[in-house]
Amino acid sequence: MSIALGIDTGGTYTDAALVEYSTGQVLSSAKALTTRRDLSLGIGEAIDRVFQACGAPCPAQVNLVALSTTLATNAIVEGQGSPVCLILIGYDPELVRQYGFEDELVTEDVVYVGGGHDIRGDEAMPLDEKALRQAIGARKDRVEAFAVSGYFGVRNPAHELRARDLIQELTGLPVTCGHDLTSRLNSVRRATTVALNARLVPLLRELVGTLRLTLAERSITAPLMVVKGDGSLVRAEWAMQRPVETILSGPAASAVGAWHLARLAGDELDGGALWAVDVGGTTTDIASLRDGRPRLNPEGAQVGRWRTMVEAVDVHTVGLGGDSHVRLGSDRQLVIGPQRVVPLSLLACQHPEVVAELRSQAAVPPREEVAAQFLLARRPPRRPLDGEEAALLRRLAQGPALLSALVRESRYGALLLRRIEQLAAEHLVIRAGFTPTDALHALGRLELWNAEAARLGAQVLAVQRRCPVDELCREVVEGVSRRAAGALVTKVLSDEARLPDWEREPTAALFLQRALDDGHGGELDYALTLRRPVVAIGAPVRAYMPRVAEMLHTRLVIPPHAEVANAVGAVVGGVVQRQQVLITPLEAGETLRLHLPEAMHDFRRLEEAVAFAQEQMIPWMEERARQAGARQVEVHMVRRDSEVPVRLGWGDRIYLGTELTFTAVGRPSPAREE
């Protein structure tokens, strides 16, 4: 029996699942809290727990390990990464500055070097090797990686390849080239993507290294693979060279896992068409699947402020989960999220002393903006602190502090809250407060942590809202369901038309509100029907998603092992590699130029160019897929010719070019099989 170990590091939890590889059956699963300061700690705890489960195989039986991780996504959003130098070959620096593209280049260390090509792939200017050598030599001891993007480098990568050879010869440091990551035109976005990739290389290398040590300590020596943002798998060695391709790895794994678990449970899903909704601790992710495959974003993945050229799952993410902060707004209405906090029930498990402080607040509630909230230290600072900040972090080093007490004791009073928000944005501190998870504990529907702390937190808010505790908690649960339903409607509308702006479209917002509220009392009745079924995954979905399905009049599937679907999705995906090849006309169409990944060739006839492309690309794609970790590789080609009519009704057409898309598909290769 061949065993695969799937691991997913989410914003709140790290999941592990053992899967029988040939059948896809889940043998055991486990969860642990994600340790953001060192992801390997939470991973190690989840691995230990999954093997402690009754009937689990022993670690030495594992043949394959696959990881989906938030590392790349979080690092980009939080502005983390290693120092890099971005070398732009043939770019016009004045043009970049004139149009404000400097802000899109990720790093301030940008070097412009003469060279580059034109749209046909012809050399526009010789590569300035002297300037290139000087730039490399000046930075070899100041950066940890280099990024190289040549102007029209996707049409002819010769200058990028030469720059890569020089950097490796002179420094031995990692190098990322633009043509390796995409074959599409857009010089600025390509530069963004290649710079982000270079910044992430040392980070992912460190994670993979520590993970391998964690596995080795448990006698697991199986090959390690990583989930890409499109849901496919690659060997860890491949991922370490192209870490930017792992952005949105978690949502991609959840979509793949949702489809696999629903199909495994025998649910009839027409043509593999469904909506995958993953309700986690920090966010809710919504993805569309057709034929069992997640829809990919044709514009490239958006992460934080950066629009990349990475082919990744087209996911709609909202700040809504079990750890979303529940508080009262100015009108005493409940506000849920988008900020994440540590649930009071969990905090009390780790720090039992906070229960007494919550009892005091329940008796005499403080101001609403600090009610039932604590502050905790998160990680050491990476910048100099002023006196107030240093004093605050010294106080938090002793343990969690009641937020109302910190405000009362500070000479800045309520202004301290602004300083705390800044520290939270830098991930130096994190709040603890009342959450949907606490509401479920208070209602007796969840028994993971300290229910008394959860109920005390609910009591503080209920007193301020002037309602019974159970009523407040039920409103929280209903509020989560309503927001999840609204997010689903938003995703559907954005796919079919455009992303709705509910705040600027009050009439549309009213329609949505009343469609989700059976008892609104208005003269008009509204109803929404979601045609495709919803497959819900994540630990808390049974509490929220049945109501969502009811609101949207759709079928709901919650498969077995839904709480660890991301970890399952990490190991059931295949290895998929794609490459686009272009054929463009030259000299009024008398010559056709074939742009291969590392060379160009000219032909007189289109069919000759296509045949040569197939002859060269099929073995190239097979080898590429094997390098990524596949076996039994199959390569498919899709051809698209572009033509336009000369004059309407005459039948004559002008040939514009041909796109050949090669896709190599294979299963991961485990260490051994029986």
List the helices and strands and how they pair.
Layout: E1 3-9, E2 13-20, E3 26-33, H1 39-52, E4 62-69, H2 71-77, E5 84-89, H3 93-98, E6 110-113, H4 129-139, E7 145-150, H5 158-170, E8 175-177, H6 178-181, H7 187-216, E9 224-227, E10 233-235, H8 236-241, H9 249-264, E11 274-279, E12 284-290, E13 293-294, E14 302-303, E15 306-307, E16 315-318, E17 324-328, E18 334-340, E19 342-343, H10 344-350, H11 354-363, E20 374-377, H12 387-396, E21 401-402, H13 403-409, H14 416-425, E22 429-433, H15 436-442, H16 451-465, H17 469-496, H18 506-515, E23 534-537, H19 541-552, E24 556-557, H20 565-572, E25 575-586, E26 591-596, E27 599-603, H21 606-627, E28 630-645, E29 653-668
Helix pairs in contact: 1-7, 2-7, 4-5, 9-20, 11-16, 15-16, 15-17, 16-17, 17-19
> Which shape, going by the Cα principal axes?
globular
Unreliable runs: none
Largest sheet: 6 strands, mixed
Strand order, main sheet: write it out.
Answer: 3-2-1-4-9-10
Share of helix, binned: 25-40%
On the 0 to 100 scale, the average pLDDT is 91
Distance between the termini: 6 Å
Note the total helix count.
21
Compute the gyration radius: what is it?
27 Å
- Please provide the count of β strands: 29
Q: How big a fraction of the residues is strand? A: 15-25%
**Class per helix and strand makeup:** alpha/beta
What is the oligomer described by this structure?
A: single chain
